[in-house]
């Protein structure tokens, strides 16, 4: 069944060429780098969307109100990723298992970054943000009642960091 689509595509191209008077056809395959570029483009869109909501979104734990733009951290990531066609579940308990795990040293734009914000870092995830590159991430946080851009390389968030997932 996997090979049927390419055969149908070739048949359609051949038929179209014959109908329009062309006598040859070519099958073009996207280069392997195209998927990397597509993911990078999606990541840039995710970050751009998230930035657009800075100053417009309020934080409320356990809330997902897209009309009034009131979210907790995970409903905000769910909302933003949906804009580029990525289906995230609501809640850090679910999001921490979505996609593929990546090391902190391998982070790429658009990766989800997870934190333990309560007490000593015992790796109990309770906060999520979106990695922006350059050691920064964007997140909806109660400390500013909305969207903040914070550093992963120093201070509180460096100490609270637990893990990351690639969903793009």
How would you describe what is shown here?
- With 168 residues, the chain is of the alpha+beta class.
- The chain folds into 2 domains: 1-30, no CATH class; 33-166, endopeptidase fold (from Nostoc punctiforme), CATH 3.90.1720.
- Helix content is 34%, strand content 23%.
- The chain contains 5 helices and 9 strands, in the order H-H-E-E-E-H-H-E-E-E-E-E-H-E.
- The protein has helices at residues 4-20, 33-52, 73-82, 92-95, 155-160; strands at 58-59, 64-65, 70-71, 100-102, 112-115, 127-133, 136-141, 146-151, 161-166.
- The strands form 2 sheets. It has a 6-stranded antiparallel β-sheet. A 3-stranded mixed β-sheet has the order 1-3-2.
- The longest helix has 20 residues, at 33-52.
- It is globular and about 35 Å long.
- Residues 1-26 form the signal peptide.
Report a brief summary of the structure:
The protein is α+β, with helices and mostly antiparallel strands and 168 residues long.
Question: Descriptors for this entry?
Answer:
single chain; endopeptidase fold (from Nostoc punctiforme); 2 domains; 6-stranded antiparallel beta sheet; 5 helices; 9 strands; globular
Reconstruct the topology from this structure.
Layout: H1 4-20, H2 33-52, E1 58-59, E2 64-65, E3 70-71, H3 73-82, H4 92-95, E4 100-102, E5 112-115, E6 127-133, E7 136-141, E8 146-151, H5 155-160, E9 161-166
Strand order of the largest sheet: 4-9-5-6-7-8
Strand content: 15-25%
Distance between the termini: 27 Å
**Structural classification:** alpha+beta
CATH classification, class level of the largest domain: Alpha Beta
**Sheet having the most strands:** 6 strands, antiparallel
The low-pLDDT segments are 1-30
- Our count of domains comes out at 2
CATH topology of the largest domain: endopeptidase fold (from Nostoc punctiforme)
Strand tally = 9
